[in-house]
Amino acid sequence: MKLLRFGNTGKERPGILDEYGDIRDLSKYVTDFDGQGVCLQNLEKISGIDLASLPKVQGNPRIGPCVTGTGKYVCIGLNYSDHAAEAGMEVPSEPIIFMKATSAICGPNDDIIIPRGAEQVDWEVELGLVIGKEAKYVSEHEALNYLSGYCVLNDVSERQYQLHRSGQWTKGKSCDTFGPVGPWLVTTDEILDPQNLNLWLDVNGERMQTGSTNTMVFNVAFIISYLSKFMTLHPGDIIATGTPPGIGNGFSPPRFVKAGDEIKLGIQGLGQQQQIYVNDA
User: Fold this and answer.
1) Exposure of 59 by Cβ count < 10 A (0-12 exposed, 13-18 middle, 19+ buried)?
2) Average pLDDT for residues 223-241, to the nearest whole number?
3) Which of 142, 108, 99 is nearest to 240 (CA)?
4) What is the C-alpha separation between 25 and 40, in angstroms, rounded?
5) Is 253 buried (19+), middle (13-18) or exposed (0-12) by CB count in 10 A?
6) How far from 151 is each of 1, 122, 131, 170, 181, CA to CA, in Å?
7) Are 172 and 160 in contact (CB under 8 A)?
8) Could you state, in order of their start, the residue ranges of all structural domains in the chain?
9) 56 and 1 in contact (C-beta within 8 Å)?
10) Are the beta carbons of 76 and 241 closer than 8 angstroms?
11) Is the dihedral of CA 87, 112, 273, 235 positive or negative?
């Protein structure tokens, strides 16, 4: 299933794509795709609904983040060896963990706001994981059974804040709108192998990132298992699994986003995002 949320910011409604790519309104069956809405038990109920019986959504509504009410947005750093090389850093022996504030979450096609004083706004296409069942001390063998699905993420980053303003990376990752999520939450039954997905990102029509999840240092199952040893993962939590090479900071000289730039990004089977970058008022 491809689940989504549509409508104006703060007033989104739950929907699902039918076989023709049309949005069907799920409001009769689901209040929203929050933690309860994306839990595995609820998704099983949704899978039995006859989509033809649901109202078809007319027009071209805004698409919101595919999950809401997220408790934790956990990120894995330097999880592609070729990205670590372009960043001039060693491949980690264990996953690097940092957090993105949930207030950064926005829709996949919403404008990205460049913060006042920002100088080095960058891009990162990433495979996102959405937890569907409480996970604590989960084995790697069982880990994928705790997922509700996958989605596209852009881990927007301000490199000066992240790398040159002292402290941890979170401040460079958590500005408002730095967390576009979606367009869809694609349930696990549609993705047979999360370690064989192509990722890409364009800036103003120029291809910057091309990669595959098969070059991850730590795979999806390992990441879930590893995180569950340090914190309980709850339905609706988001995990960003790292980015392939091609970030702006990896160029010589570096290339960063400016107001008016357009970024498009996507992942095989998970849809794509499109954003315009604008200055904060």
Assistant:
1) exposed
2) 98
3) 99
4) 20
5) exposed
6) 12, 20, 11, 21, 7
7) yes
8) 2-64, 73-279
9) no
10) yes
11) positive
Looking at the domain that runs over 73-279, which CATH code has it been given?
3.90.850.10
Q: How far is CA 34 from CA 39, 116, 127, in A?
A: 9, 31, 19
Give the number of other CB atoms < 10 A from CB of residue 131: 30
Closest CA to 244 of 76, 83, 75, 77: 83
* Least confident residue range of 52-56, 131-135, 169-173, 216-220: 169-173
Residue 208: strand, helix, or coil: strand
Q: Taking residues 171-188, what's their average pLDDT?
A: 97
Q: What is the pLDDT of residue 225?
A: 98
- Residue 34's pLDDT is 98
Contacts of 108 (CB under 8 A, 6+ apart): 63, 65, 66, 152, 180, 181, 182, 183, 271, 272, 273, 274, 275
Q: Flag whether pLDDT at 91 surpasses 90.
A: no
In tens, the pLDDT along 245-260 reads: 999 999 999 999 999 9
- Rounded-to-integer distance, Cα 22 and Cα 151, Å: 18
The secondary structure of 140-207 as a DSSP string is TTTGGGGEEEEEEEE--EEHHHHHHSSS-GGGGT-STT-EEB-S-EEEGGG-S-TTS-EEEEEETTEE
pLDDT at residue 82 in the model = 76
Sign, Cα dihedral of 241, 163, 171, 203: negative
DSSP 116: T
Whether the Cβ atoms of residue 279 and residue 114 lie closer than 8 Å to each other? yes
